Amino acid sequence: MSNHSGERAAQRIRLGVILVVLVALALGSFWVLQALRRNGDQTPVERPRGKPDYYLENFSYVKMAVTGLPRYDVSGTRMVHYPIDDSFEITKPVVHSLDAARPPMELYSDTARVTDDQTQIHMYGNANAIRGAVKGNPPLHLVSQYLLLLPDDEIVKTDKAVAMTMGTTTLNGVGMIANNATQEVQLLGSVRGHYEPTAKKR
User: Fold this and answer.
1) 68 vs 21, more confident
2) How far is it, in rounded angstroms, from Cα 149 to Cα 48?
3) Cα separation of 162 and 164, whole Å?
4) Rounded distance, CA 116 to CA 38, Å?
5) Rounded to an integer, what distance in angstroms lies between the CA atom of residue 153 and that of residue 102?
6) For residue range 160-188, what is the model confidence (pLDDT) as tens digits?
7) Which among 151, 150, 160 has a CA at the least distance from the CA of 187?
8) Is residue 201 part of a domain?
9) C-alpha 165: how far from chain center
10) Dihedral of alpha carbons 168, 169, 173, 176, sign
11) DSSP assigned state of 134
12) What is the overall mean pLDDT for the chain?
């Protein structure tokens, strides 16, 4: 009898140990699962980028004014259209103003993004704006890593560092607004300048 009682007690102890281990494993698995779920909830979901619906290579197009006259033209090596926001991405863009009543202006950069119903052209990387000579004044040359062109208003502006050269005068600053219609240029901060007088003719 005592032997059978001892064996039963030993079996109960073994069963108890096994149950404790199984419960511990179950609780551990539940904790790991909950931790994974929490981590999964905290992981940001990547939103799919809009896909282009068409592209053009070695293109050129002219934007017309409401008067029916050409306003400006845009050319580049590649243009991609994104229908999700009706924007365009352009490689090696070149923009020319075509308004005969205003000084000629040319802009170019590494890339550009055209947004807001083609009323804004964001020019990125080695962005240059050149206004032709007017009323005896030499050409104006602007250089920055970013220029925003508002073609309908013929305004160029930036919030980045910009260098401006006009004849023998060079100005550097941060932030700029240039209005081709009024022929006014404003440097908004950290302005430094250099002027080299031209040699007098004898």
Assistant:
1) 68
2) 29
3) 7
4) 40
5) 11
6) 999 999 988 999 999 999 998 888 899 99
7) 160
8) no
9) 26
10) negative
11) B
12) 79
The top-scoring range by mean pLDDT among 15-24, 111-120, 192-201 is: 111-120
Contact at 8 Å (CB) between 88 and 113?
yes
Structure tokens belonging to residue 32: 């790991």
pTM of the model: 0.71
Round to whole Å and give the CA distance between 89 and 59.
Answer: 13
The dihedral built from the CA positions of residue 5, 11, 13 and 16, taken in this order, carries a sign that is negative
Structure tokens at 25: 């494993």
Residue scoring higher pLDDT (122 or 11): 122
Q: How many domains does the chain have?
A: 2
Give the total residue count for the chain. Answer: 202
Q: Is there a single domain that holds both residue 116 and residue 31?
A: no
- Same structural domain for residues 137 and 187? yes
pLDDT, one tens digit per residue, over 105-122 is 999 999 999 998 889 999
Instruction: Look up residue 49 and give its two tokens.
Output: 């980028």
The residue range of the domain holding 6 is 1-43
